Amino acid sequence: MSTQSQKSALVVSAHPGDFVWRTGGAVALHVKRGYRVKIVCLSYGARGESQGAWKQPGATLDAVKRQRHDEAQRVAELFGAEIEFFDTEDYPLDLNRAMLDRLVEVYREVQPAFVLTHASADPYNYDHPDAARFAQQARIVAQAAGHDPGAKTLGAPPVFLFEPHQPEQCDFKPNVILNIDEVWDIKRQAFEFLPAQRHLWDYYTRVALQRGAQGGRNSGRSATYGTAQGMTYGEAYQRVFPMVLEELA
Amino acid sequence: MSTQSQKSALVVSAHPGDFVWRTGGAVALHVKRGYRVKIVCLSYGARGESQGAWKQPGATLDAVKRQRHDEAQRVAELFGAEIEFFDTEDYPLDLNRAMLDRLVEVYREVQPAFVLTHASADPYNYDHPDAARFAQQARIVAQAAGHDPGAKTLGAPPVFLFEPHQPEQCDFKPNVILNIDEVWDIKRQAFEFLPAQRHLWDYYTRVALQRGAQGGRNSGRSATYGTAQGMTYGEAYQRVFPMVLEELA
Amino acid sequence: MSTQSQKSALVVSAHPGDFVWRTGGAVALHVKRGYRVKIVCLSYGARGESQGAWKQPGATLDAVKRQRHDEAQRVAELFGAEIEFFDTEDYPLDLNRAMLDRLVEVYREVQPAFVLTHASADPYNYDHPDAARFAQQARIVAQAAGHDPGAKTLGAPPVFLFEPHQPEQCDFKPNVILNIDEVWDIKRQAFEFLPAQRHLWDYYTRVALQRGAQGGRNSGRSATYGTAQGMTYGEAYQRVFPMVLEELA
Amino acid sequence: MSTQSQKSALVVSAHPGDFVWRTGGAVALHVKRGYRVKIVCLSYGARGESQGAWKQPGATLDAVKRQRHDEAQRVAELFGAEIEFFDTEDYPLDLNRAMLDRLVEVYREVQPAFVLTHASADPYNYDHPDAARFAQQARIVAQAAGHDPGAKTLGAPPVFLFEPHQPEQCDFKPNVILNIDEVWDIKRQAFEFLPAQRHLWDYYTRVALQRGAQGGRNSGRSATYGTAQGMTYGEAYQRVFPMVLEELA
Amino acid sequence: MSTQSQKSALVVSAHPGDFVWRTGGAVALHVKRGYRVKIVCLSYGARGESQGAWKQPGATLDAVKRQRHDEAQRVAELFGAEIEFFDTEDYPLDLNRAMLDRLVEVYREVQPAFVLTHASADPYNYDHPDAARFAQQARIVAQAAGHDPGAKTLGAPPVFLFEPHQPEQCDFKPNVILNIDEVWDIKRQAFEFLPAQRHLWDYYTRVALQRGAQGGRNSGRSATYGTAQGMTYGEAYQRVFPMVLEELA
Amino acid sequence: MSTQSQKSALVVSAHPGDFVWRTGGAVALHVKRGYRVKIVCLSYGARGESQGAWKQPGATLDAVKRQRHDEAQRVAELFGAEIEFFDTEDYPLDLNRAMLDRLVEVYREVQPAFVLTHASADPYNYDHPDAARFAQQARIVAQAAGHDPGAKTLGAPPVFLFEPHQPEQCDFKPNVILNIDEVWDIKRQAFEFLPAQRHLWDYYTRVALQRGAQGGRNSGRSATYGTAQGMTYGEAYQRVFPMVLEELA
Questions:
Q1: Best CA proximity match to F50, nearest among F35, F65, F72
Q2: B200: number of Cβ within 10 Å
């Protein structure tokens, strides 16, 4: 349960795998830092992100959804995060007004210090930009005094877009690299809860190592610059809105 | 004098006015925070940024340079910053290898925690992108072990580009807004040391107010979002390299 | 009433405030020049743009809409423009086919010499790009001979996008600055008809002054270039389609 | 009928004219090369692309559609391609879920070696980007094992966007020029099956000649570079996804 | 000779052919409208744009330059324009400070109402962007009171970039189309003064026809929109700075 | 020596490491395919890319250059490629006209079927874009009949930009992925010839694996799409000019 002073964060993910590969480090890290982290998982990815599950004899939509629900639930527990499933269809997402209203409620209840969602373009998977638009649309509605008047409105939490599968093809340009060394073992462990996407385990381990190396280089903490302490694992994000600072360094 | 633990910052400016209008708040603020701030002023802007001075009867290049030197020196003193003049010609800048080597030395001596310079494009004034390239080129050379071997090399300080006169025409997209409320009175006072550009005093006062209002809105500190404490004056920057974070909020 | 030779213009605005802050000068100026100007105001902005109104005890959606209707009506009268309300919901806009058909009719009836609407992106307010797409979609349909066959079709009026609240964040790059000196007092007076957004009065006064100063600079009419007559207030626009000219100056 | 070894291609076009002007050469060429080429024509363009037809006395929507159907059918036959009409309305396109499912079936049945569709932006005609999104959305759904489980899924055929009417205004940047010399006479003949758009015959003949000249220049086959054999007619395309090569030349 | 009230224009061209293909219509048209038009031709294009000339037996650099000088001179006379040759080498351009100073003098003497030069990128020919930068750099220096103090400075004439050979590859996005119907015969005649580039005559005739057709469409003067008077030949330009208007239509 | 029918390729690299990490696979692969591959290595990277070497006691510029020369020579031999060193200084590159002329000669002598060089932007290392511009500039000059008249000119070989260290920060968008499985062991072996950059061995192994996985996905050869044969190692390139094709698949 959230106390008044506990900070919180919100993740809006199109499918279960996304919040593991793309932002699992941020989730686990902020839980470790004492944040309440809530994940909204819009769909089970049953049609598009469950190739492995459909190879099982007698697979049905319900069975696949249940399997993915359980996997995602276990990962959320491993991370120490809350998760809520909107159970919309995927490929394509079938988002509606009631879901928008529910997401607005979630924003207002969670009052996140920051929001994590998908990038704005992905020619390989239109569910991702659709989820991103939905997440940002709901954030804006949650700020409006006239939506469900009397309810506590939302401030202006920053939005961080997480890394798509092929970043350059999605016009993704990271401006933030998060050091996830402290929680890498947890993130890596979560991969194993997703046996149907085994081919991605190594891929996203390498993504973490590349972003870690880049983080070291951009912060001057890498071996190249002769600093004692480096970083090894990272996650890349693209911050949407300008940040407001009291000091530049 | 810089003690070992004092943080420092470096500003590279094409002409004297630039470091006043575009980044005077950052300079004064970080001095107030205890930073050593060094300004490298590449030219006196004698040809291109001294329209007023040339209207005085008998104006000569030397006299105009001396006047601008004195103005810039006084502003630097007001800010509590160091200033070094490279005295290259302006319109266009006539930068050479010796100046590059000197700027590399400055980087290595100052070891800035961050760097402030011009944006990468300006169709109204090519001295600005030329200065920006020069400042960033020197930063890279200062990192190279083989340049003046044995000297202490530079780490990877972040670079912030300051706001050009007509930002959209320069493809300037701010991702950082610095709150300069604490030092606004100093920045505004500095404007008056530049009598030849009186027509810009109000212009840059309004820039500060607009960026302040945007800062409030982006941080949720503005009146719109019902928070007690807002901000009034801001300076906008575009951070060049990704930032490395241990936490997102 | 429009005579055959009277030129006309069409404004499509998501919320009432938009046509005041962003394009009030163009509306008043062209009315003064003898144009018939028609404003289509898609929503009352009751949910998202009426923060002040909801602070009144006992506020209801109907009451807020009525208040905003009256404010917008009064501003239109002040400007000498016609206004038609589509009364869709806002946050998000709930535009439908009937509204599209009605807007097509308006285009064909008004036969505007130019169209004013929102910019194509706004991460702070998705109603704005939604309105822009709707306005441009209707313009295209109005050109189609097969829509409501027999009705007079539309030519190819240019579209000007008006300035969003934080232009760089919306990828807004102005290529037109309109001199609104003649009607500035009217535009400024209109601000006061919007008491709930009092925090924007000064903001948009400064926007007008900045665009005015830039207009002077881009036309060589500013004091900097030693010309007698300058301009003081401006509005910035982004023209969507190429302009066709008989002479370049 | 498609034998196992026959290669195939799929074209998704908003209106009948589009597949003639923009990609008629590719269709005819690949048929000549032995491909099965299937065209999905989403609408008849009855409202927006049939200005000429509506000038006939007594024109009705049905009559216009029938006329355009017959024209498109004749062109497809001339090209040796299959054509399927989805008969959605145009201006705007009124695409629905059943049409998406049908297009997914087509993808899976045709198993195209490549896909041809519209560019992603067109401020003159929103039906074009709407068709492009629909075509790419369906391609992605066709890859998903969970959509109509058990059916043969689709691989990852490349997508080529064909040239819009005013390419620079649509942010169209060609990276492929197809030599259509072998089939130019067929393409040109097809123009004459579209009498209502006679004003475009010469326009698209010139487009073919310009792209041909550019193709010669980019391949070093033009007279400029002194090579014996040039090319005369071309079609420009923008390939969406990276190509995978075993050799660079 | 220029009288006080005569308007003037300045063209800065890398090679002789450029001002013919890319902007010959604008030159001839404005001369016809009573403008003084001055062309600065930076190089003779002897190395890179004279493939034909070098095929003549015994060709020397001097002879090629003389031939191109004569051709360019004849075209300028046909257009009724002045021409000044800077005779720098081409491929690459070898521009120096003395040439910059001379171009500044030309700007100040001509006081052009507008400037025509190359686009900012051209991966096929780096002389073009180099010339463009040089032309814009000189324009800025000509505005500076401190350059050759006492001389009459330049105002802020708009800059129009003319169309490169393969516009999309040069990120050229036209926002102005000039109607050159009145002078097309002159422009076409000029082509024949350039026999070495005969392969471009038809190419640039088609460019003019395409831009003419687009001009008609963008202005609603084309047959498509049922207007009596169309336009046939056009030249496309990209205006660099915002235009300042007193009225939008 | 090159026989008439042997195809060839040219690589232009700023420093020795670059042609190993970024394009070593392409070099080795095309040698294996029977190409003559020539590498022009502009500098020894002695100042900027030899951090390790400078840590050796008594290091001098000459000694460092000699060491890097030997390493690069050994790698070239391993690859079976020719290499020519221009021995310009690095950080910054100090390229001059004689070097440009020499590179033009190389282009004309090699007559490459394709060219490999750096990307056009790199805020971490300005030597890279400087080398890229130089390589492309020389290619254009080599096409000019008037440069060293009588020599055999160059055709229009395509240019492929190789992958920078942090691709998104360099606006690098790959449109070609080369399968380097056949030569991966050679590329990996070459890494070990560069002991001073040991921290990059794993980094670029992961780059190759990521590009390999993406290559599989984009070609439908990956496990995801159920095809038997995949690819494991790749190199990403950005093709500069449109490709001309006789068939799209």
A1: F65
A2: 18
Q: How far is E118 from chain B (nearest CA, A)?
A: 14
Q: What is the tens place of the pLDDT at every residue in A58-97?
A: 899 999 999 999 999 999 999 999 999 999 999 999 999 9
Query: What count of residues does chain D have?
Result: 249
User: pLDDT under 70 in chain D at which residues?
Assistant: 1-4, 221-229
CA D249 to chain CA mean position, Å: 27
How many Å apart are CA A32 and CA B247, to the nearest integer?
Answer: 11
Contact yes or no for D109/D67 (Cβ under 8 A): no
pLDDT, tens digit, for every residue of D88-109? 999 999 999 999 999 999 999 9
Model's pTM, two decimal places?
0.96
- The Cα of C152 is separated from the nearest Cα of chain D by a number of Å equal to 12
CA distance C228 to C218: 15
Pairing of strands D8-13, D36-43: parallel
CATH T-level topology, domain A8-198+234-239: Rossmann fold (3.40.50)
Residues of E with CB under 8 A from a CB of D: 51, 124, 165-169, 172-174, 199, 202-203, 206-207, 209-210, 213-214, 217, 222-224
D59, two tokens: 């024109």
- Pairing of β E114-117 and β E234-239: unpaired
CB contact under 8 A, B123 and E240: yes
Q: Which of D55, D59, D126 sits opposite C137 (nearest CB)?
A: D126
Chain C residue numbers with beta carbons less than 8 Å from the beta carbon of A146 are 46-48, 50-51, 53-54, 61, 64, 91
Instruction: Give the side-chain half-sphere CA count within 13 A for C11.
Output: 34
- Provide the pLDDT for residue F221: 65
Q: HEC string of chain C?
A: CCCCCCCEEEEEECCHHHHHHCCHHHHHHHHHCCCEEEEEEEECCCCCCCHHHHCCCCCCHHHHHHHHHHHHHHHHHHHCCEEEEEEECCCCCCCCHHHHHHHHHHHHHHCCCEEEECCCCCCCCCHHHHHHHHHHHHHHHHHCCCCCCCCCCCCCCCEEEECCCCHHHHCCCCCEEEECHHHHHHHHHHHCCCHHHHHHHHHHHHHHHHHHHHHHHHHCCCHHHCCCCCCCCEEEEEECCCEEECCCC
Alpha helices in D154-235 (DSSP H): 184-191, 201-219
For B20, phi then psi, to 5°, come to: -85, -60
* Statement: residue F229 has pLDDT above 70: no
Q: What's the rounded Cα separation, in Å, for the pair F90 and F186?
A: 27
D32 to chain F, closest Cα gap in Å: 11
Question: Beta partners for E162?
Answer: E237
Q: How far apart are the first and last CA of chain A?
A: 35
| Cβ A107 vs Cβ A147: under 8 Å | no
Residues E225 and C156: their CA atoms lie apart, in Å, by: 8
Find the CB nearest E146 among B46, B92, B123.
B46
Chain A residue with Cα closest to F232: A203
Check CB contact under 8 Å for E203 and D210: yes
**In chain A, domain spans:** 8-198+234-239
